[in-house]
């Protein structure tokens, strides 16, 4: 246990790559156990189960770790091998997570998911982010679920639902326009798709 804490502490003191710039708007927790540089915020981060895991204060079964994120087995799995990729810094939602952190997490998906699929003798996997309470997010520390799947495992009840073909009508066109309008507020003009 002591060597594990030392390894985590060393990864914080001497990371292989710099952490992303800290935006004062974001609620960021260093998740470090030294207590030297605390970010002022609510006590939610002190109570965040993922922050406690990163600090070495809560047990976990770690599958992978680098300077930006770690992957652990979910303690309440939907299926054998259900795992979580979590950033080492505290971001409550995907919108509040810097793109560089999301990219670091996502870049590990092929490596980790392949290992999980092989280790569980699965056929494939689902990649899932529950973002916000209405979407089922329970722990408000951004994380990605890797859920190994086997044919006919009947994990999702929605798999039995019949999907409907989208009608290319006025309602669909208006939805696309509203989404593009929201994107215009956030993206440089050269990245936007012009309606055809």
TrEMBL record:
Superkingdom as given in the UniProt entry: Eukaryota
Residue intervals of the HIT domain: 49-156
Q: Which residues cross the membrane?
A: none
Care to name a GO molecular-function term for this sequence? adenylylsulfatase activity
Q: Where is this motif: Histidine triad motif?
A: 141-145
Q: Where are the catalytic residues?
A: 143 (tele-amp-histidine intermediate)
Please report a single Pfam family linked to this protein: HIT
Gene3D superfamilies named in the record: HIT-like
Q: What is this protein called?
A: HIT domain-containing protein
Species of provenance: Eruca vesicaria subsp. sativa (Garden rocket)
